[in-house]
Amino acid sequence: MSKVEEMLSELDNSAVLFKKFMNISKSEQYRKNNLIPCIVEGDEDFSFYEPKVRPLLHAKLEKLISGGIDKAVEFVNAINRSNYYSNNCFIVFLDSDFNLDSEKDLKDSRVFYLNKYSVENFFITDDFFCNVLEALTKLEIKRKATNGEIDESSDFVKVRDYIFDERDKLVVLMIDYMVCLRAIVVGNSEIEFKPFKDVLPKLIENSNLIKDNGTVNTSNFKHVFDLDVLSPEEIEYVESRITDSKTYFSANKYLDAYRGKELVFIAYKVLALTKSTFHKKSNMITTKLKFSKQLKEEDFINDFVAYTEEPEGLREFINKLKSNYIFP
Fold first, then answer.
1. Mind listing the pLDDT tens digit for each residue in 148-159?
2. CB under 8 Å to 94, separation ≥6 — which residues?
3. The pTM is what?
């Protein structure tokens, strides 16, 4: 058995990832640095990174889905154990997940860790919404003659502030939800949580899922998540992790630390609400609010990735990759 075959036999499911990489490395495009393998956890990650990285690399990215951090770690470790492939060029993009398991951190110059929980968190920032308004609407932006700052009476400012207010209202509703969710996902409970958007109406009715003393408001908890039966042991399990979860979120910025998929829903929800609100009440602004791009929840990431900012450290990472592996 060859060394490569031996490694593949040890990798189980991640062997598929290794084989795909080996096939790419044999291509002429790869040898000429015109094609770079890009290992991501999921399709949405590739949709986010590809348009940002391609212009920096001046090369095409070949998508390889790892399915999660575990398989990506196995892949990189296998590469580094190989004499033949250890110096090959590729990129691995991983969510930070704020180091839920720091033992899995990869110390490799071909691995980029996001500075937010996940790529979806970039769709909820102030800059994202401002970019959308500037690029996709014709809202009037008045500037003061004295210092050039945007006049608060501008239609742009009115709509922008409305968006921020509505976003913040929804984020507040997420606080207890995300604390409860994280209390479960970092443990071994079999309690199933429904997505944020599915429980939003119930959260509005019962926003106090956690009492001031850190215990679960059992009746509200059951109602929000449709848990008809919840054993005392399960309640105790959640409560034992509530404190740790609240500490986790208080130590990190909420808009960076929340699980991303819920935030993407909020971004879509807020823009859709803004569109309907200012269309119905056109007297609120002097310019008619109209988005030049259709709002669709199912394609939101693909459609709006161009308006997200570049992740911190990405440009420096790509420059080092080029100097170490592409143009040494």
1. 788 888 899 999
2. 41, 69, 72, 106, 111, 112, 113, 114
3. 0.82
